[in-house]
């Protein structure tokens, strides 16, 4: 695999250079059952989830038992227009936006994946990662299965197709074999099935729109289409929707609830709620807790847009230091791309993010960010602020040090490339050239997120910070990738 130089660390590349070494969410899913113009609803719902995946988009609908689908590389607005949406009739649909990691970024892997088998048509969309997919895939290939993609998601289709049981029982049996964090939407000619892994690692919510149902990776997508939030899909739950309505079943008992902490810290939109917890409010609490744990005398507080703005406001409110827009993000630069030289990469940083000189010049600045992965982003932003005239730059991070990779659907580099895995906080401070550096404590993070009293870590997966993963440890050294790949 190509290794891309990104400043201080090599990045195991897949044809992209992330100018910002931020973590990437892999996918967003959106489902409709029993609502007219399902494709149009999915289009708007996927727009709301665009931040979860920018490489490909797809929608599959069903009308009178017949599938209609379209998927392509690009943003939702690039893949679909009025004519494309008009060619997708029906009151049932599943949609998907994707960001690839270990797998290839190509059309064959774009979702929903659509298959024909003896039971009819099958469309599958997922967010997350099936950690043991390579093991199951090799087993199925030995039994004669022929895979059409490099996607982990295709494994579930083969397991269902090979089962002699009726569909719902075949799906339960298939999910029973999976290890990982995932949210699935599966559509057939007659029904829609919705499932969340036994730990509830990846978010999935249910809403009502008229007499129909809407499902989405985040509640903000429900708001976008005018649906009313009903509840989160529970860990190990399988929802079956057909002509008789909705019935609630289980394919596994709920194990230790372990919602991905990075959803609260970074990935989900601030107007979304996860398990009843609003993201903007929890991020403000993270900033307030940071202020209590690591106050520093300064003139201005600013947040790295967009995910750290809420925390920066919380830090400012707690300390009384004014909050200012010291950093501005250009929202129209599009997706990241490979630059031919380090010099041009640095220009790319300024194209995506700029410091407001009149705000930071001559000031002692507290810069709030959500995480430090390789350290290259933090170094570049600290330098941006200094070049704009900041006399001091104090960095405060709303997560604990990111020392371990994620195995459940987040794009993380090799453990050796995580700066916090190899360096102390003081060494990281020196590497990013900040005047001071502090990471939110794990206890502070858990308290700031809140909810789920009585559960271990209040129902969070903190594996990337603690090395304590909710699934079996024999998969810790498995190939890291996305179920969407």
Question: Which features characterize this protein?
Answer:
single chain; 485 residues; alpha+beta; Glutamine Phosphoribosylpyrophosphate, subunit 1, domain 1; Rossmann fold; seven-stranded antiparallel β-sheet; 17 helices
CATH topology of the largest domain: Glutamine Phosphoribosylpyrophosphate, subunit 1, domain 1
Mean pLDDT metric? 87
> In terms of structural class, how would the helical and strand content be classed?
alpha+beta
Which consecutive residue ranges, at least 5 long each, have pLDDT under 50?
1-20, 335-340, 475-485
Residue fraction in strands: 25-35%
- Shape estimate: elongated
Report the CATH C-level class of the largest domain: Alpha Beta
Q: Multimeric state of these chains?
A: single chain
- Count of helical regions: 17
Radius of gyration equals 22 Å
Euclidean distance between termini CA atoms: 16 Å
How do the strands line up in the largest sheet? Answer: 6-5-7-4-13-12-14
CATH level 4 superfamily of the largest domain: Aminohydrolase, N-terminal nucleophile (Ntn) domain
Q: Profile the largest sheet.
A: 7 strands, antiparallel
CATH architecture of the largest domain: 4-Layer Sandwich
Number-wise, the strands total 27
């Amino acid at each position: 695999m190509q290794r891309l130089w990104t400043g201080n660390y090599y990045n195991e590349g897949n044809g992209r250079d992330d100018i910002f070494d931020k973590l990437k969410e892999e996918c967003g899913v959106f489902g409709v059952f029993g609502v007219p113009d399902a494709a149009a609803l999915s289009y708007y719902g996927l727009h709301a989830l665009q931040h979860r995946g920018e490489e490909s988009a797809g929608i599959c609908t069903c009308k009178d038992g017949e599938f209609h689908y379209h998927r392509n590389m690009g943003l939702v607005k690039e893949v679909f227009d009025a004519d494309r949406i008009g060619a997708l009739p029906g009151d049932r649909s599943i949609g998907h936006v994707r960001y690839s990691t270990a797998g290839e970024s190509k059309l064959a892997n774009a979702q929903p994946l659509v298959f024909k088998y003896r039971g009819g048509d099958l469309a599958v969309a997922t967010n997350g990662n099936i950690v043991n997919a390579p093991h199951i895939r090799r087993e199925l290939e030995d039994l004669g299965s022929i895979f059409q993609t490099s996607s982990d998601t295709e494994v579930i289709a083969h397991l269902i197709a090979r089962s002699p049981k009726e569909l719902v029982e075949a799906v339960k049996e298939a999910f029973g074999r999976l290890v990982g964090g995932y949210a699935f939407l599966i559509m057939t000619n007659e029904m829609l099935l919705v499932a969340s892994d036994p730990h509830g690692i990846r978010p999935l919510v249910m809403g009502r729109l008229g007499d129909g149902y809407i499902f989405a990776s985040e509640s903000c997508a429900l708001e976008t289409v005018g649906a009313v939030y009903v509840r989160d899909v529970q860990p190990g739950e399988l929802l079956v929707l057909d002509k008789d309505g909705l019935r609630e079943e289980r394919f596994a008992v709920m194990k230790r609830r372990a919602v991905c902490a990075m959803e609260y810290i970074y990935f989900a939109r601030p107007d979304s709620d996860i398990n009843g917890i609003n993201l903007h409010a929890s991020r403000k609490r993270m900033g307030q807790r940071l202020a209590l744990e690591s106050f520093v005398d300064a003139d201005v507080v600013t947040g790295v847009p967009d995910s750290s703005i809420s925390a920066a406001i919380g830090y400012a409110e707690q300390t009384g230091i004014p909050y200012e827009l010291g950093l501005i993000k250009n929202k129209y630069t599009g997706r990241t791309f490979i630059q031919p030289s380090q010099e041009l990469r640095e220009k790319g940083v300024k194209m995506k993010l700029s410091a407001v000189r009149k705000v930071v010049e001559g000031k002692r600045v507290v810069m709030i960010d959500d995480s430090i992965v390789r350290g290259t982003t933090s170094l570049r932003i600290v330098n941006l602020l200094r070049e704009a005239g900041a006399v001091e730059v104090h960095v405060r991070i709303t997560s604990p040090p990111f020392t371990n990779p994620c195995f459940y659907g987040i794009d993380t580099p090799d453990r050796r490339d995580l700066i916090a895995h190899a360096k102390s906080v003081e060494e990281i401070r020196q590497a990013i050239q900040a005047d001071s550096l502090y990471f939110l404590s794990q206890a502070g993070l858990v308290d700031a997120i809140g909810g789920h009293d009585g559960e271990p870590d209040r129902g969070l997966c903190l594996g990337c910070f603690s090395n304590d993963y909710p699934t079996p440890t024999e998969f810790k050294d498995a190939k890291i990738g996305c179920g969407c790949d």
